[in-house]
Amino acid sequence: MKIVIIGCGAAGIVASHVIKKINPDADVTIIGREKSIFIRCSAPYALAGIDSLGKCEKPAAMVTGTGARLVHDEAVAVDVKSSAVKTKSKSFDYDSLIFATGARPFLLPIGGIGLKNVFTLRTADDAKKMSKALKGSHDVVIIGGGMIGVETASLLSDRFRVTIVEMLPSLFPLSYDKEYSKQVEYLLSKNGVKVLLGKPVAKLTGDKKVNAVHVARRKIKADVVLVAAGIRAETDLAKRSGIKTGKFGIETDKHMKTNIKGVYAVGDCAQTFSMLTGKPVQSGLVTTAVVQAKVAGMNVTGMDATFDGVLNSSVTQIFDRSLGRVGLTEEQARLEKIKYKVGTSETLDKYDTQPGAKPLKTKLIFDHGGMVIGAQVIGSGHIVSGIINMISFAIQRKSTVKGLLKLKYAAHPELTPLPFADPVVLACEAVD
Amino acid sequence: MKIVIIGCGAAGIVASHVIKKINPDADVTIIGREKSIFIRCSAPYALAGIDSLGKCEKPAAMVTGTGARLVHDEAVAVDVKSSAVKTKSKSFDYDSLIFATGARPFLLPIGGIGLKNVFTLRTADDAKKMSKALKGSHDVVIIGGGMIGVETASLLSDRFRVTIVEMLPSLFPLSYDKEYSKQVEYLLSKNGVKVLLGKPVAKLTGDKKVNAVHVARRKIKADVVLVAAGIRAETDLAKRSGIKTGKFGIETDKHMKTNIKGVYAVGDCAQTFSMLTGKPVQSGLVTTAVVQAKVAGMNVTGMDATFDGVLNSSVTQIFDRSLGRVGLTEEQARLEKIKYKVGTSETLDKYDTQPGAKPLKTKLIFDHGGMVIGAQVIGSGHIVSGIINMISFAIQRKSTVKGLLKLKYAAHPELTPLPFADPVVLACEAVD
């Protein structure tokens, strides 16, 4: 069984692992143009000097350790009729082909975007170059108020003057409702980060090197600019090969199969769909890539696995606070014309008897029938990921307010809120 | 509607809150012999000087704030025929009566148990007296290797020479399997706590004040002794009143009703049952008391609520590690003659790129049909409570390996394990 995987990010690597685990004899080749295996989520921490860039780059053994072959090259053509992938120098036959080509950062079509010291943050190279440019810099402008932009701003703000520019009227415009994004705005401002909302960047200017970002009539000083304005699925090769693509990437069915027999697509290059609405969406999350890669890997080896859509569960850290979200926001529910109910709670992450107890704010969203369809949480540390994972599972299990009210949670002075203040149960009790 | 509640612990207070919330006009009286409202779980932290005892005692307004009446007195008789509770000085008629009399620490029937400086740790008074005795003391012996004993040992060990004596052959004999309790033993030893297992205490000796604990042929120096050898439901008054009791406390049905019409029992005084085996068990957890109190409170007001048993979800902190458990252990499954399967995982609580990532070990237990029936986790901080709560919910929802494998978890360098190393999913993948 010959399997070729194009792309050596999380999706490609996990697919190779699953295939070799199920069938150690499978002949697996990963073609990766990336120079190294990069733990991308850690890039903001590397920029801030918290993680070493070295630790974020993993050895090739992460792929080859299972017996898969790693080819550092770029796939330039796929002949789906003869089932072969061509790189610049070679050709690889396949029985099954997995596209895991990822995505590329969206570069705004504005003047000056090609100036020096304008970066995106996706590859190890990006991180290294930006790290170098930050040395001796003072003013950093981040274009894009999503996860990467806000996280990077919070991590760089103690060493640089940082400004975030977001075209839409709120931070995290696609993932959190306003009362949560307002809190993030407040956190950023309190820590000296300037936040400009609702205004697009007009242009970047500078003499070879960027020195200013122009937003409406303002000119913001910039030694370094990070463009974190979303990603676009890397679909060029697929399109050229006759593989069908949609608005958000390569089209697949629930088995992660494309329109061409024997060809799969997983991770950021693949369009996915919402588990809740069934509609096509972009995920862009590594956790989606991992699960899709497992599904494709299993199917390639002859098993029958399906992917049932995304809830886009995610967590992020901003200064000493963590935020998490899953499913639909109120705004999204409104757009989907879903009649919804909301329950909120405010409690502490420890008993109020303990030193260091911090506020924990939770919002649960339910559909008209009482089924939970979304959650947003702001707190500190791991408690937020715990709640988000639990609500993810509750959504997957089609749980209702009544079911969640019965949650048999644990209580401990240092490790949970007070015994009568579980954030999920309190939010359920408060449903309007 | 006249409601009398006997007992002013978590069970009694929550019952009063629920009743007053549903029916603000209800005439609610709580008879409490306790001098104060005490957050008992925090007592070990108060002994260690981490929490102030003052913070662990809550004002009477916690009860009276809703309009309920708080009577500091002891209920000495219940006349179920005339529906009246008698205290030493007064009589209170009721339409509904809720027993929330709690439990008392089990005092070993051994010589010297009445000596000075031998304590239990249940009430604010207990904590105050023991706190006082600890001043100037050096050697502390804790009898009982359960949650309270081990937690107190870990919290006192930096100021005292601490020894734990447990009669059974392992710590946490009723809640964790050996590979977990062994880790706790190791943690205690590493931090200078002596652990004696498998030997009962023969007697305590001293001249008025305890000075030694005798275990087999050993004599352990002791300035202070804490007896944390379990609790017994406080059922004397109930028994005297003709209310039926079982091995573990007052017998109730799923509505928390006793055998006497209009009389309920909730919390530590009530015998409960395992959600998984249906058999009578002791819970002793405040979280059980809270949920039972809500059920009784709702039923008293004319609603129809039921309690569906316990999973005894709990978490604890020992030095810088947290432990959590829910459902059945392997040992309990064996005793119940349940054919079970196990899946374990070892990962980190952050990405391996982050400084301060700590090990996280998870065990999931499934029945023969693949339904999850238990979990044990050791890690640090809130991540453990998050996993335990999620698995509690999964057990309640009768989830299987297959369902949990599909968990749509979140990933973040600082807030979760690596994206392909979710502890629950990894453990599911490892099921034998």
Please tell me about this protein's structure.
- The structure is a homodimer of 432-residue chains.
- Chain A has 432 residues and is of the alpha/beta class.
- Chain A has 3 domains: 2-104 and 231-300, FAD/NAD(P)-binding domain (3-Layer(bba) Sandwich), CATH 3.50.50.60; 118-227, FAD/NAD(P)-binding domain, CATH 3.50.50; 314-429, 3-Layer(bba) Sandwich (FAD/NAD(P)-binding domain), CATH 3.50.50.60.
- Chain A is built from 13 helices and 29 strands.
- In chain A, the strands form 9 sheets. Chain A has a 5-stranded parallel beta sheet with strand order 5-2-1-9-22, with helices on one face. A 5-stranded parallel beta sheet of chain A has the order 11-18-12-13-14, with helices on one face.
- In chain A, helix 1 (10-22) runs parallel beside helix 9.
- Chains A and B meet through helix 1, helix 9, strand 25, strand 26 and helix 11 of A and helix 1, helix 9, strand 25, strand 26 and helix 11 of B.
Quick rundown:
The structure is a homodimer. In chain A, about 25% of the residues lie in helices and about 30% in strands.
